[in-house]
């Protein structure tokens, strides 16, 4: 007997459905979303700085940063424009390993990610540590292409993808949760896709 309700065009729920947050659809491609033109950052000119407020804690050049431990992360990602992509495969340096190399414990509870294009986005420190986030250097085994944020981008896969800053050049510890580029323009301060925190005022 055919189960009523699943028979006429409606598909039964699958494991895949359970991986798609509310209001999202499954995307097979990899859309590019940038607020401005793609900055071309040569690895010779690349650097990454850990800061506390305006004060630099430590800076790595490309060679130094690539000497840090490389970790693999394969995760589903969720863009606020409603696409979800399964099993994106990244390699990069865990934020934990960056902090360890700098010899510090997180000095404040919030971070502002800083990018070469002037883009910023805020994330609570605890959403970046304990293996939850990385500075990604490779996508599907190859250097990240410029349009997707190469040479290096932040990857915070459990939050909407606008939190994964492309063309990353630093992480700044801040005393308060300071809204970044999109958070100042109406996006949610935290951005949990499972709670559908898209815009300011969403729960
Ligand atoms: N530096 C920077 N990072 C950024 C953006 C940007 O404009 N500049 N766009 C954000 C947004 S809104 C999204 S959805 C993702 C898109 O990443 P993708 O182009 O690799 O899909 O990058 C995020 N990171
Ligand atoms: Mo986005």
TrEMBL record:
Location of the region described as Disordered in the Swiss-Prot/TrEMBL record: 1-22
GO MF term list: oxidoreductase activity
E.C. designation(s): 1.-.-.-
Alphabetical list of InterPro entries matching this protein: OxRdtase_Mopterin-bd_dom, OxRdtase_Mopterin-bd_sf
Keyword entries, A-Z: Oxidoreductase
Domain of life (superkingdom): Bacteria
Domain Oxidoreductase molybdopterin-binding residue range list: 36-182
Name the UniProt record assigns to this protein: Uncharacterized oxidoreductase YuiH
Lineage of source species: Bacteria, Pseudomonadati, Pseudomonadota, Alphaproteobacteria, Hyphomicrobiales
Gene, per the UniProt record: yuiH
């Amino acid at each position: 007997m055919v189960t009523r309700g699943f028979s006429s065009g409606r598909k039964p729920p699958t494991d895949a459905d359970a991986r798609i947050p509310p209001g999202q659809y499954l995307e097979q491609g990899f859309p590019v979303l940038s607020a401005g033109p793609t900055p071309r950052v040569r690895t010779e000119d690349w650097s990454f700085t850990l800061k506390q407020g305006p004060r630099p804690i430590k800076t790595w050049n490309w060679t130094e940063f690539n000497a840090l431990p490389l970790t693999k992360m394969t995760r589903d990602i969720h863009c606020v424009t409603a696409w979800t992509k399964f099993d994106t495969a990244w390699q990069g340096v865990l934020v934990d390993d960056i902090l360890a190399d700098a010899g510090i414990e997180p000095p404040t509870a919030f971070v502002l990610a800083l990018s070469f294009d002037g883009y910023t986005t805020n994330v609570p420190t605890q959403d970046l540590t304990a293996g939850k986030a990385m500075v990604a250097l490779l996508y599907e085994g190859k250097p990240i292409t410029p349009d997707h944020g190469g040479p290096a981008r932040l990857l915070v896969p459990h939050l909407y993808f606008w939190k994964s800053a492309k063309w990353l050049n630093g992480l700044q510890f801040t005393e308060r949760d300071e809204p970044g580029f999109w958070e100042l323009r109406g996006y949610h301060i935290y951005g949990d896709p499972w709670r559908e925190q898209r815009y300011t005022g969403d729960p």
